[in-house]
Design brief:
Elements: H1 4-16, H2 23-27, H3 34-49, H4 56-67
Length: 76
């Protein structure tokens, strides 16, 4: 019978592969840890629905655009 960390890792791998199964699938493997598995599953499922975070590259790109018009940059 797999352990809680092993099932949690399997859930992460399934999520990363886009194949996160229903929570009952994982709970059936370790019924005595059903609540812990439900919490882990909810966290992983929520990460699938979360909008992607803006990269810092876009912020830097916008800042760079404001400097494009300058001919030279000098130290103060």
């Amino acid at each position: 019978m797999p352990s809680l960390p092993e099932i949690a890792e399997q859930m992460r791998m399934d999520r990363d592969a886009g194949q996160l199964a229903a929570v009952a699938t994982y709970q059936a493997q370790l019924p005595e840890q059903a609540l812990a598995l439900a919490a882990i599953h909810a966290h992983l499922a929520a990460s699938l629905r979360a909008p992607p975070e803006a990269s810092t590259g876009s912020t830097l790109e916008q800042a760079s655009r404001s400097v494009v018009g300058l001919d030279t940059l000098t130290d103060p």
